[in-house]
Specification:
The protein is α+β, with helices and mostly antiparallel strands. Helix content is 17%, strand content 40%.
């Protein structure tokens, strides 16, 4: 029999930006209801750094709102069964 998987690691990317004099994450609902959040759980996730950078470029090119001083960060999440 195969042994059960005991650990799972996943990676995704988030965008951090300046908002109201603080660093916050771009929210999942951006640009609608809540645009920014302090909670990483509510941050908009991207599966590659390139997709996150494309999102920033596309959104800022519209010019209505801007993502100020964006920084793309990689998040590593590991689940372990003991």
């Amino acid at each position: 029999m195969n042994e059960l998987e005991r650990e799972n690691t996943s990676y995704f990317y988030i965008i951090e930006a300046d908002r109201d004099g603080q660093r916050k994450y771009v929210n999942k609902t951006f640009p609608n209801i809540y645009q920014y959040t302090k909670k990483i759980l509510h941050a908009k996730r991207f599966y590659s750094e390139e997709r996150a950078l494309e999102f920033i470029e596309d959104f800022n090119s519209v010019g209505r709102y801007m993502i100020n001083n964006p920084l793309v960060k990689m998040v590593k999440r590991t689940f372990t069964v003991e």
